[in-house]
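tokens incoming
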């Protein structure tokens, strides 16, 4: 009995390279171009600040108007910038985390959604409005508190006094900055809290944990890096704020930890906004050089925040 063997049809081998459609190629090109453009703009800004700021950095003390040359000129401004941003960060971070936890784990869904929208809208308010609110409302309201702090806690350098009678102090500037960065920290923390694996939360509740114990054991450890990164992003915003700080305080070239007195250290951004219109010659280069210092500090803060985000450890288990 003979059997006929049919010839085998060759199976098509899959192509090693996926087929790229024209739309995919166009989108990839646009995305790559946008990324390269951002890098070019960043490099251009850095090059401009460096070229225009070097003459002031290398100038003699007589030309800059300070006995320690550029370092003595920029140090009080850098100190005021870091002090105001630190006050804002210390005040805003606990409130932002609390609001994020309330929206993500306590509030009813409909109310939480509306409250989330309201928090995000805080970031859309112009800084000029915050500055006017700080000068007309917050500053006068803090005068009695500042006087009490000076009378009872004056032994602490932060409240050494004498307290300002107008309320336009570094403390008020820090509180206004805290309100401004509150939606940034809250939004980042809220999104991280919502990504906490459901199995981890249910397991903690099944073991008899209360809602707060579940948050403490499952949600906060998972969102720790998100809180840190959100705080660093908010710090970057506070470091570069200009108009709101310029409206509240009229600083001097001093270094003082007293945050309730009338003599305050001005920030770099506010000093540039106030002095640039009337400056000329080397004074303009000095202001640009201070902008270079602020650029470097802000870049380092945001780079650190990105580093924290990239190193966020993933929990095992289903989401």
């Amino acid at each position: 009995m003979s059997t006929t063997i049919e010839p085998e049809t060759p199976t098509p081998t899959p192509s090693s390279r996926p087929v790229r459609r024209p739309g995919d190629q166009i989108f990839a090109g646009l995305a790559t171009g946008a990324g390269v453009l951002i890098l070019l703009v960043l490099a251009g800004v850095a090059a401009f600040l460096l070229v225009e700021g070097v003459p002031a950095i290398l100038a003699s003390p007589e030309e800059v108007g300070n006995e320690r040359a550029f370092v003595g000129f920029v140090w009080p401004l850098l100190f005021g910038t870091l002090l105001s941003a630190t006050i804002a960060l210390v005040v805003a971070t606990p409130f932002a985390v609390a609001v994020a936890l309330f929206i993500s784990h306590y509030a009813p869904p409909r109310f939480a959604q509306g409250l989330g929208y309201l928090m995000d809208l805080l970031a859309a308010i112009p800084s000029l409005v915050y500055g006017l609110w700080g000068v007309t409302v917050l500053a006068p309201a803090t005068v009695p508190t500042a006087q009490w702090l000076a009378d009872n806690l004056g032994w602490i350098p932060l409240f050494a006094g004498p307290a300002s009678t107008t309320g336009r102090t570094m403390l008020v500037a820090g509180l206004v900055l805290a309100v401004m960065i509150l939606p940034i920290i809250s939004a980042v923390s809220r999104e991280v809290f919502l990504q906490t694996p459901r199995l981890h939360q249910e397991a903690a509740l099944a073991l008899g944990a209360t809602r707060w114990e579940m948050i403490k054991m499952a949600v906060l450890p998972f969102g720790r890096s998100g809180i840190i990164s959100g705080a660093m992003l908010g710090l970057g915003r506070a470091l570069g704020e200009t108009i709101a700080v310029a409206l509240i305080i009229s600083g001097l070239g001093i270094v003082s930890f007293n945050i309730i007195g009338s003599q305050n250290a001005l920030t770099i951004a506010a000093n540039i906004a106030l002095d640039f219109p009337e400056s000329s010659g080397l004074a303009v280069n000095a202001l640009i050089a201070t902008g270079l210092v602020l650029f470097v500090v802000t870049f380092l803060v945001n780079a650190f925040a990105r580093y924290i985000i990239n190193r966020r450890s993933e929990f095992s288990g289903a989401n």
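note: Residues 313-319 have pLDDT under 50 and may be disordered.
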